[in-house]
Amino acid sequence: MLGPVILAASRSDRMRRLISAAPVTKQVVDRFIPGETVADIVPIIEDLTAKGLELTMDVVGEDITTPEQATAARDAYLALIDHLKGLELGEKVEMSVKLSMFGQALDGGHELALANVRPVVEAAAAIGTTVTLDAEDHTTLDSMFAIHEELRKDFPQTGCVIQAYLFRTEADARRLAESGSRVRLVKGAYKEPAEVAYQQKHEIDKAYVRILRILMEGEGYPMIGSHDPRLIAIAQELAHKAGRKLDEYEFQMLYGIRGEEHLRLAAEGHRMRVYTAYGTDWYGYFMRRLAEKPANLRFFLRSMVSKG
Questions:
Q1: 40 assigned to active site
Q2: Is residue 230 among the annotated active site residues?
Q3: What are the two backbone dihedrals, phi and then psi, of residue 234, each rounded to the nearest 5 degrees?
């Protein structure tokens, strides 16, 4: 399987330099990351929302090694929120954050990440939107869930992400599927050991459906993070069986992947949110997109061959 190999490459400085230097890389990266600055991304926000889509914005960057970098990440999100305030789009544009960007892996990282993310959540609430805490590798999740619980005391709309490939996730879903919760379910995009995670696609898909059923039958707000046509159809069926209205759940897909499907779902009346990343520290995000889906890797390799 190429996925684990690509994920290993995402942590390699040598591969980072090699891929970053390839002439074709930028045009391929632009497929998934349509800008480096807030100014770059505002036209994208305006275009997608005009088409009936919603967004969740991610400022890319995870390799935080100092408290100063964590503070800079916080400030980047605050600058984004300041721009969103002027657009007056409310909950149509929310934010996704990785706590690693806010210093979670540093000494005293749990407290540091909470201190850095809280102003972002507060500022988002002030303009009528919210923040979802992205899930990272399994060693970070207890801290992420604890921060999520703490933030929800004052900002109950704060969302979180759970990953179907982890054995623990069914129990997490049962705990989280409460009134007022917002939970995004994804398959998972980190290299996890067999002791904690399913390794085969069919196992992950089955787990995804089991967990999605828990969320749909619960009292929270499920967010279906998938591009898989079969899982999307199953989600619609489960929502119907659970008696959910179209505004009681939503689909989420990545910018640059299955754009026509985004528009189709929105045209059918579904809430369709596009996960849109921007920034200069794109390497880790880009490599996980390649690892998640063979078609993404084929697209990149074809581009390198045709432009090489």
A1: no
A2: no
A3: -65, -40
